[in-house]
Every structure is written in C-alpha cells, then in structure tokens.
Amino acid sequence: MKKKVSFLSPTFNSEAWIVRMLDSIPKEDAHEIVICDDGSTDKTLALLKNYQKHCPKLRILENRKNAGAGHAYNRCLDEATGDYVAIIDSDDYYLPAIREVLAQVDGRYDIYYYNMVTRLGKILEKKSTDDPYRKSGQFKIIRRSFIGDSRFGTQGPVPGDVNFHKLLIDKKPACKYTGIVAYWYNYPREGSETHIYRNRKK
Q1: May I ask the CATH architecture of the domain 5-201?
Q2: pLDDT digits 0-9 by tens, 135-167
C-alpha cells in the first residue's frame, strides 16, 4: 500500500535554487511539502508564496529571524504529518528516478536509502556493507513514527544532520538500500553548511 510522504526543506536565501528544488518534487507522490524559511533576506519567501498559488500541497513556515539550519530542519519535522518524511536541501534537487524510490516505500522498512550524484558527477552510494553511521546526508526517506524525538543538532561544531543521523541509527532501523541514483547534490558549493564545516576543520 502506498504511503503518504511529507517532503521537508529548510531554506535561507535560496532564491537561486528554490524553484528548481520544488519543481523536482513529484507532486503526485507528495502528501505535503513543508518549507521552513529561516529569515531569508532575498526573494526566497516571495518565490515560495508565488509557487504556493499553483501548488496547494506547499505549506510555508516562516522564521522572522534566522535561527540556523538545525532549528529549521526541526521545525519541519515537528510539522510533518505524512507516514514518511523525505528531506531535501533547498539548493539540491531530485532526479526523475526519485519516483522509482518512492514506488518502493511500502511500509516494510524504517529507512529507504537511495544514492546521490554531486555537481561534479561523483556518485555517492549508501550500501548495506557501509558503516551505518557514515554518510549522514539526504540519502533517505524515513518513517515518521520511527523518528520519535530524534532531531537535528542546533549547537556545536558538527553539522546538525550528523547528530540526527546518529540518533536514528542508534535505534537500529530496518533499512532498504535501493541503489538508485535519485538526488542531485549541490556540492561542493561555497557557503553551504558542509563547506563551512569542512573549512572549519582545516
């Protein structure tokens, strides 16, 4: 039986990418699209509101002041109502093959993994033989009830998704590895959270 999927994305000053990201979400497979604008100062919010006019599944959450990516991710998680959640960063987009992944979300697993391709053409894979704690990015569609109180980190030198991913893996999820390349990852990109973190480590 097909499950309801909530697509979630935090965004901040993403006017260059936000429409492309939204267009990549297959609307026929979306229970809802929840976007948290984290106090953008460019045209991001205006673009979202314009998009909402022809996309009733889009819900916009607004932070008046920038609270940070972790807070925005968590607000999206708190608002989601679907059986599963799929998190996509605002500067990335889904490839058409995401439909093949979504067709496999049948409720048997807690996490459905797919693969990503970077802007430089490198394939990033999630395999059953990998250390499950590695590669914490947006490789997955997650059962919402399994998430429980797991949330993105909001403080410290480690990106928030690392904290969130660890909390999920600690719960020993049942996982399916589809092997499908379904996500375009805008990396490397100067100014991204990953870029800032890796430069901090140097």
Answers
A1: Alpha-Beta Complex (3.90)
A2: 999 999 999 999 999 999 998 777 889 999 999
